[in-house]
Every structure is written in C-alpha cells, then in structure tokens.
Prior knowledge:
Layout: H1 6-16, E1 25-31, H2 37-46, E2 52-56, H3 71-78, H4 82-88, H5 91-102, E3 107-111, H6 119-130, E4 137-144, H7 150-159, E5 162-167, H8 173-182, H9 188-194, H10 198-209, H11 225-234, H12 238-247, H13 255-262, H14 266-278, E6 282-283, E7 288-289, H15 292-301, H16 304-316, H17 321-328, H18 337-351, H19 355-363, H20 371-383, H21 387-397, H22 405-417, H23 421-431, H24 438-450, H25 470-486, H26 490-506, H27 509-512, H28 518-528, H29 532-548, H30 555-566, H31 572-588, H32 594-604, H33 612-625, H34 631-647, H35 666-679, H36 683-699, H37 703-719, H38 723-740, H39 743-763, H40 771-781, H41 786-793, H42 797-811, H43 816-826
Helix pairs in contact: 1-2, 5-6, 6-7, 9-10, 10-11, 11-15, 12-13, 12-14, 12-15, 13-16, 16-17, 17-18, 18-19, 18-20, 19-20, 20-21, 20-22, 21-22, 22-23, 22-24, 24-25, 25-26, 25-28, 26-28, 28-29, 28-30, 29-30, 30-31, 30-32, 31-32, 32-33, 32-34, 34-35, 35-36, 35-37, 36-37, 37-38, 38-39, 40-42, 40-43, ...
Pfam family, one: GerE
Protein name: AAA family ATPase
Keywords: DNA-binding, Transcription, Transcription regulation
Amino acid sequence: xxxxxxxxxxxxxxxxDAESTAVPPVVVVEGSIGIGKTALVNEFLRAGLRARVLFxxxxxxxTNIPLAGIRPIVEELLDDDLPVLLEESAPRVLRRRxxxxxxxxxxxxxxxxxxxxxxxxxxxxxSLIAAPGVSALAVLLCFRSGTIPDSxxxxxxxxxxSLQRIRLRPLDSADAATILGGHGVADDALxxxxxxxxxxxxxxxxxxxxGADLVDADATTPLEIGDALRGELSALDPPSxxxxxxxxxxxxxxxxxxxxxxxxxxxxxxxxxxxxxxxGLIDADELRIVHPFIRAAAYRHMRxxxxxxxxxxxxxxxxxxxxxxxxxxxxxxxxxxEEVETIIRAAEIVSATSPQxxxxxxxxxxxxxxxxxxxxxxxxxxxxGRPVDAEELLRDVHAVxxxxxxxLALLLQSLRIQSRPDEAFELVREAGAARLEPEVIVELxxxxxxxxxxxxxxSRTWLDDDDARPGHAMALAGLRALSHLRVGDLERGRAAYLxxxxxxxxxxxxxxxxxxxxxxxxxxxAHFLADFDDGVRLVERAIRLAESRGRFHVLPHLYMILSxxxxxxxxxxxxxxxxxxxxxxxxxxxxxxxxxxxLTASIVAAPGRVDAEEFVAxxxxxxxxxLPQIGWWRRIVRLFVARASIALGLxxxxxxxxxxxxxxxxxxxxxxxxxxxxxxxxxxxxxQHAEAAIAWGxxxxxxxxxxxxxxFRARVELAQGRVDDALDDARRAIGLFExxxxxxxxxxxxxxxAQLEATAAEAGPLDVLTPRELDVAELVAEGHTNRAIAxxxxxxxxxxxxxxxxxxxxxxxxxxxxxxxxxxxAMRQPRRS
Length: 833
C-alpha cells in the first residue's frame, strides 16, 4: 500500500523517465530511517520505464568485498562474475569498462541505501556522474539524512549533471491514520508516537494486533522505532524468527539454502514465510526482508553462536570464493585451517582493487597463527600507505627469531618508505649476507642505490650471474646501472642499462611483479641516458601491472618518473596530470619524498606553457614542500630550485650548483651557473659554462645534454650581439635534440631559429653600431686599410683596429668582406639617426 508520496513520485518520474534531457539527471532521495525511501523507489520501479534499470542495494553489514555494494550492476554490465573482474582488471580499468557499457543504451542506475556503499563502489558512482560522455545515464540514489558525501556533490558539479534533491517529510495525520487502518488499528496515541514515520506506524500497528502494549503512558523515555522493532522480533515464534535470521545474512543466501540455514523443514518454512509476510516483514514471493532496517535489526538480534553457525552453512553453499570469505569472516577464532585459506585467497583477489578490504578480511583471522596470512596482511598495509603498522606487525611476527625471506624484504621495504635506511642496513647485518634470499637482495640493493650505498653491503655482487630467476637477475642489473649513472659513470651505466632493458622487456608479468620497484630505477636510467621512448614503454607497463595487481605503494614513484620521461617527448599535459597523480598517491601511500620531486616535474614542464604568475606559484609550492631524504633526489630538487630562482631573478644557493667529480648533473649545473653569470652581465663567464656543458654532453655521448648546452651558448651569443653564431648554434641544437628523441626541446630550438631569422631580417646586423663605428664600417666596406681609415677620420690606427674588432663582435660577422656585404644591403634603406 503506497500512501502519502504521490507528489514525490511524480517528481521522480518527471526527472528520471523523460524522453530526453539536455544534461544527465541525478536525483537524491534523503530522509530518516523508515521514512519511506525504499517504498518510494519500489513504487517508481513498478511502473514500466523507458530506460534499462540497473538496481543495487548495499547492506549495513560490511562484506569487505570491493564493489559489493553495486555487484549486481557491475556483473550485469560487464557480463562476468565479480571475483574474476577484480582479479583481472585494475580499478581504473573497471571504471572505464563500466562507463563504456553504459553508453550502449539509455539506463537508470538506482541505488537504495547508498549510504552503505563501499569506497570502491562510491568511486565508480562518482566517476559515472562526473564523466561528460555518459549523457544517456540517469542516477537515483537514496541516502539517510546527513549522509550524502561531499565528494558526490562535487562529482555532480564536475559532470554538469542536473541535481534534484527530494527530502521525505513525515506523513500527515490523515495518511498516518490510513496506514494504521490498513492493519485494522485506529489509535491517535500511535499516530502521535510514530511522528509520521511509515515504518514505525506499521511496526506499532503489528504490535497492537499481536496484543503487545508498547504505549506506556507512565514511561519517562519516549518509545523509538528500534524499540518497536525489538518488540516485534521478540513476539515472533521460533520458526519465524529462524527464517528472519536466515534472510538477514549478508551476502544474501540463495532460496534453496534458506531451509538449511534456518534449521527448519519445508512445512515449517512455508508456515513461517506466510506468518512473516502477513506481518509485513518479508516479501513472500521474493523471499527477502522488505526493509534494510528490519534486516539489520534481525541480524543484530541473533546470538553470536547462532550467527557463526548460519554464516558457516551459508559459506558452504556460496556461489564463489568472495561470498564464502564474506560469510566465513564472521566465524572468527572458530575458523578451520581450510576456512582460513579461503579468506586468504579472497584477500589476495581483492587486494589489487582495495587493500583496505584485504586488511579487513585478514584482520578477522588474526587470533589464529598463520605466517602466510601475516605476510599478506603486511603487504596490504604497505599498499594502503601504512608502513608503520606493517613494520609493527612484521616485528611481532619475527619476535622469536631473525626475519628471513619475504618477511625481511617487507620489513626493509617498510623502513625504506619511512626513510630509515640505516635501520634497514643494520637488520641485514644481523641476518648475515650469506643467508639472504633473492627478494631481500633486491630490496637491499634498492635501498643502497636510493640512499647512496653502503660499503659494507655491496649487494650488487650477491647474486650469481647464472641465477635462474630472471626477474631478480634483471632487477640487480637495473640497480647496478643506476648505481653507476648516479655517480656519473655513464659508460658502465649505459652498458648495464642496455643489458637490463633487454632483460626487463623479456620478463613475463609474473616475473616482473616481484621486482616491480626496480622499474623506477630503470625509468631514471632511461631519463639520464635520454632513452625516452623505451623508458616510457617499460614504465607504462609497470603502472598497468601495479594497478591491476595491487602494488599501489610503487605508484607514486612510477607516476613521477613517467612524468619526467613524458616532458622531453612533448607530452607535458600528460606529465602534469601524472605529477598530480604522484602527489596524491604519495600522500595516500605515505611516501613524502615523492612530493617535492613530482613538483619539480611540474616546474620542468612549465616553460612555454604557463604564464609568469603560475610559474611563481609552482616555484613556491616546490620550495614549501621541502627537500627529499633520498640523497640524489635531494640533489635534483636543489638543482631545479636554484635554476628556477635564477629565472625569477631571486637569489640562488651557489652550493646547489656545486659540481662534484663525475657528477651526472654536471651539464645542467654548468647551465645554471652560466645563467647566474648571464644575469649578472658576466658574458665571458657565461660562455665558459656553456662550453663546459657542451663538452660534458659530448664526452658522455649524451646528445640531449649537448643540445641543452648548445642552446644556452646561443643565448649567450645573442647577448653578445653575435646573431649569426647564435643562429648557427640553435640550428645545431635542433639536430642534437632530433638525435636524442627530445621532441619538446627540438621544438623550442626550431622556434628560436625562426625568431632569430625574423629578427635578423627585420633589424639587420648594423643597427647595433654607434655612429663612429658605422663610419668605420663604411670605409671598411669601400676597401680601405686601417691606416687609410685612420688618416681620413683623424684617428690612430690602433683606435681604428679596436673599432673594427667591436664591429665584428657586435654584428656577429666574421670578416671585413662580411661587413661590406651587409653594409651594401643596409645602405639601400634609410640610415638611422
């Protein structure tokens, strides 16, 4: 019986079932418990709608399975079981596939009790609402009052959807009396007590029909809806209560299982079904509880032992491993060894999509000792950005002995993320190098490379060359390459990188996954060696694998290095998106060192794309972020802070540009020092640094750095008035950048050439001369010697010689014949005053 909501129903239909809409509609129905949100949605769905309807109703009892709240929608759209989807696709990929599936035909997504959506499901809903391309989509969401997430409202704003909020008010007295009358009850006291809440009214009416006197005139505490529902449950006979308990389980059980879970025979089940339906607690046709509040109350009403038994029986009849694990997690310390393995397997599946879900599942089994479970839980804690918790767990696990194998590798990783390398090195000393497993060696080598090494722990020699594990062998080769490059040994670094690159390209996904952290080292090698295209392919593959297999802790670093690799390829917009992703991921997964380096990438991507005000804002964000703890990351940030300071006319720390022996950043630092000299007007000093930057690039066979040095020399030559030389260098830089694959910097060099050519054509080289120098130039052009010019102009020959030298320097011309040619052209035009 649908009473008192005709106006709201008409509003729903007007917004969600229209022939066409200019913008996708989003309707939010909100109200208190039992106010009629579910009844309104059910009535709306009973009518024949023009669009396809996709319906889901999340449960209050958490399943700890990502996307469980919208599982029916996901499985219908993608035509596959949720466990398969979670195991095979990254969350980002699933969101894209769902969005694409919704564009096939007009659809209405309806989610009742949306306040119980799990985090991943809410992310999907918000991404659909914010997506500009899903115009055939309408969305109906029901929330309890005060529970609408701000993120959802922001998604509506981003996507430009039309938002309609329908707030359900209490029913008036006439409608309340109609509801009571439908149950054969007429009592003004019940109307006053229920306060216009439809569910409360029905529960009160059923209680009175059953003979329960819930209205106590002498009571000092007002009766609430929960009190009425508990009274209703207490009045049920045992078979009816057992059936209600069975139907209250989450995930919902199949009808064929209900009798076994309830512990009743078929005849008793039929009687109980009729009884509960008559009291308005269940839908007999669909064999489900009619209201989520009743379902949650019935679940809480069960005794713990009965709840465990019901979940265990339900797990035995579950359709897939995720459902089994969802039930078994409620068994607690009574789990069998086989049941623990089921939960662990489910946690492995969901960890890729939601480490939080994996943690929740595994934590339910902590009372039972299980080493593999503890290692998986530690990994999930690291993925969730909780290295401190992971460290505490791992130290507890290994309290009785020295950690080994994966446990030690995870403990080292937790310390690395917390920037505590000294403690990690000490752990390895205690373990002893001779007993280290390959995964520990790779983690330790990563530590050594990132934190400037440790003479006592030369992990590069700990794995035999004929090791049969290609992933670990290639990981050490890549780390060896970075260790050489980091100290400026380009020859050995390049040789090791080429070996490692060939090996990484041949690794399967399962071989790459255990050493995926080392791909970040390979990305830096590719950047230092200007191997941008291959570096991008390797890092992009690692990101896809990390996202799909739950290696989220490495994403800040992968996003960041890919940002740096994109910049020279003229993919700066993507680079800035990745920089923002890296910062978000670094904050989420507790890797603060990645933030200043990601902000550095946004500075490097800025020239030619942002105005001066935005550049200053980026510079300030970078300075405010502080410096990384990792040594060579710190040097990168200090270098670019110094260069940005010089560009802005601000004081720069000379120590930030100090060039060490075999410095991998020597070319960039020479350019920075040259920029400082150029800003001070010391052109000879600036030219010396330009020559040094070029020499370093040529000696290292690094054409990209040679190109940057050559472009800077062009700037200095232009400041000296040597336009022709500047033009020659800019043209030379185009070839160097072309050779190195630096698309962005080749484009900059081409723009400089065009600008210099246009300037030379417009102004001419003689415009920079003084009147006396122009007189000398005219006589030079006529073929007079310095002595003859001196006699004509009443000057000494030495003075004339100085004038000629200045003319050649200012104009960039190379000979007296060049002066004649250019003067001949200039004389055809009016002479300047």
